Amino acid sequence: MVGEDWGLIVLSFLVRVGFFLFGIYQDANFKVRYTDIDYFVFHDAAKYVYEGKSPYARDTYRYTPLLSWLLVPNHYFGWFHLGKIIFVILDLITGFLIMKLLNQAISKKRALMLESIWLLNPMVITISTRGNAESVLCCLIMLALYYLQKGKYTMAGLLYGLSIHFKIYPIIYCIPMAIFIYHRMRKEGPRAQLTALLNIGVSTLVPLLGCGWAMYKMYGYEFLDQSYLYHLYRTDHRHNFSIWNMLLYLDSANKGNGGSNLSKYAFVPQLLLVLVTGCFEWWNPTFDNLLSVLFVQTFAFVAYNKVCTSQYFVWYLIFLPFYLSRSHISWRRGILMVTLWAVTQGIWLSQGYYLEFEGKNVFYPGVFVASALFFLTNVWLLGGFITDLKTPVPLATAGKKNN
Amino acid sequence: MVTRHRVAVLYDAPEAIGSHMSQNDTHLTVRGGPGVVLQQRWLLERVESLDKSTKRITWRPREDLDRDLSVIENELSAGFSVYSNSTDIPGRFISTPMYNSFHSENFDIEQHLLLEVDPDLPWNPEYFTYDITVEPAQIQIVEYRPLKQGEEFTVGRVKDEKLEAGVFFVDASDEVDVDIGGIRCNWGMDDGKLERCQKTSLLYKQGHIAFNRSSQTAPLYLEQPIGLHPKVLIDLTEFDERPQCMYLMHLQLPLELFVDKFQVSPLLLFGEHDLELPQYSLQDKAWGSESIFELKAGTVNEITLHSRYIKPSNNSAGKFEVSFSPEIILACDTGDEKVARNPFYKKGLGYESLFTDDTSFRHLNTTTLSVPIPRPDMNDYSKIKYGTLLCLLISIVYLLSKIFGNNKKKVPVKQE
After folding, report:
1. A residues 123-162 near B, CB within 8 Å?
2. Which of A148, A155, A258, B272 could potentially form a cystine with B286 if both were Cys, beta carbons 3.0 to 4.6 Å apart?
3. Which of B:225-264 have CB within 8 Å of A?
4. Which residues of B touch A244 (CB under 8 A)?
5. Which of A:305-334 have CB within 8 Å of B?
6. B182 in helix, strand or coil?
């Protein structure tokens, strides 16, 4: 870490403080609140925990109880906004870890720019300062990867297991992670390979099963149902970016009445792509490539998911700096990609606005076509990422330091 | 068994009685005029049933909401409501600590009122208002109807009926006390002849107080445009806080709309308050929800509601609209439990029972609001289904070709 790195961290911290303070001001003085609606859910759930009750007493609390525990200080100190500071700190730690993990072979200027994709990204900053909990998960995943790179498999596993306990989806990372370890330990022989894999495997299962069991003991079936099962069986979501959204709506309204079963298989293309893209680690089993593979995998997961809202974009955004550090995608093409992504998203948002705030009946073709356009754009981007991923990295930038 | 039947007509001045009433041996005829209200009450005895619970059924047509309340009436909620304190809760009813309730736009009387004797009532839900109480020993049916200019009502005794009629005028009334005078007539039980009528006067306290809408208004409307989060605005700028009183909004919301108790903190909320599920996933569970909000005088109050996703339409371009009628009420502690009952009505189950017996209610405004809820059309189903399928197929083929195809780029000679 050099002075410029610390400078970026301090600047990022100050910007977040600014956003945080503005949020308090906006909440107090404007009709439209700055604070995220989910933050009220966490905050209310934490109140129940503080009173010795179950966080699931709060309707729509569908997370691990650990998250509500994290916000208990809100009630202990009686300050509503306190939890946001925790989220901001975790968001900064994530940025710091991105710095640590970013290939050191690239120029300082480029590194600072890439780090800024996270640290100075207004989307990331608003998400944590508005009190959205995504930064908790991002931080856990980044910490797990940090220890993985250091070869500390037990620590990596413990953190990785905890991240899966928080939200199930990081489980998709197990394949590329296993491939990476398998190759890294190759020189030390099959025994060492197996030991390392067992080590991280068991230490992943310990917090995953341990937390799961403890939460089940404490909060019963409601924990399983609300934090996990609910996300699987629910099909009647309100409008969101997902290509599946309209079909799910019509099918859920028409149950047992000639509706299709197509939406039941929503997970099939998603799983297929996530598995296949995960295997890209095999042909280039470096740590840098692992981070790029995770980016592509997450991007595919989000694009094909049956629910998709803006906060899901953060899931792949944490890997974007790494991906770009090794990408061959030209500036011009990159700008086209970002523009298309933003424009199709904008089209969807305009339809969403007409529906949500003007009550216009734009379900079809409006919302549906906008979802399809956004989906196809995402697929096109994904195709570009895959081609790029297959392109070998020139030796000069292959990041020797990290292996 | 004998049915007791009572007819009461209310005019606003004593002179009106003479000119609007006529009689012969067996029948009494009254004629309508502006603001004239006719109340009929039947008391039907029941074979004492084992069920000790009480049930109240009320109906008020939406068109009746504009009419000013007279002193012999209680103000009922618009639509069809059933309240019961039975421990046995039928499907789609919602529970409150005082009663279970059901609410609907349709006058489903046959489904909810089982009559052991049939008084041959000509139900007229289009114009009449009903307040029915079913107790273990008797059933009381009260019907109100406006008797308009040019309308006539004639009554005579029918078989197995004990009939009496009262024709009244308002002698004096202030906000609390009512003094009405008039004549009261009885019919002979044996010959069915109209016996001599007697002068009478009644003095009582009102539980529901008519509100003079011409001097002060409490506009009630929806913020435009109406989206999926309709905002009800209640303008109480013309009102001041009053000691011992609370300004309230009483809502009976159909299932298509709901209250987020975490967002708008109602005083009371009963029934379906799920924050996410669509209407069609909940329709077997409850009819909707009932809630009471406290409002602030001197300002425009905002209550944000939310609409649920509803079933797609079947080949109809028509908009789906859901209506509800918020009631803006000034509820006051009077310290006098006499307001709980009078010769014409008594408080029963329903929101009244959530308040102490000495509470009086002034109805400032009830306006029917209509919320359009957008919904997709099932006609587009196959387009959506095949469109989705097509997108997915194209995407999978494209991505598999990218994954397995020979599309490696040439490595750029120089990076950085």
Report:
1. none
2. B272
3. 225-229, 262
4. 388
5. 328
6. strand
* Angle (deg, nearest 10), helices A82-101 and A122-129: 150
Chain CA centroid to CA A259, Å? 32
Contacts of B388 in chain A (CB under 8 A): 243-244, 246-247, 262, 372
B253 DSSP β-pair partners: B289
The reported pTM is 0.87
A59 touches chain B (CB under 8 A): yes
ipTM: 0.87
**Over residues A82-92, mean pLDDT:** 94
Q: By the 8 A CB rule, do B179 and B173 touch?
A: yes
Q: Which residue has the higher pLDDT, A20 or B110?
A: A20
Asked if residue A128 lies in contact with residue A139, where contact means CB atoms within 8 angstroms, the answer is no
> Token pair for residue B331?
């509820």
Whole-number Å distance between alpha carbons of A273 and A245: 19
The Cα–Cα gap between A286 and A397 comes to 12
CA B129 to CA B145: how far, in whole Å? 6
- Residue B57: closest CA among B31, B93, B17: B93
Give the model confidence (pLDDT) of A345-372 as tens digits.
999 999 999 998 888 889 989 999 999 9
Nearest residue, CB atoms, B409 vs list A107, A382, A387: A387
In this structure, the strands spanning B327-333 and B245-254 are antiparallel
Higher local confidence (pLDDT), A47 or B191: A47
Q: Among residues A375, A203, A229, A211, which one has the least CA distance to residue A302? A: A375
B223 touches chain A (CB under 8 A): no
Three-class HEC string of B310-377? CCCECCCCCCEEEEECCEEEEEEECCCHHHHECCCCECCCCHHHHCCCCEEEEEEEECCEEEEECCCE
Q: Say how many residues make up chain B.
A: 416
Q: What is the tens place of the pLDDT at every residue in B204-230?
A: 888 888 887 777 888 999 998 998 999
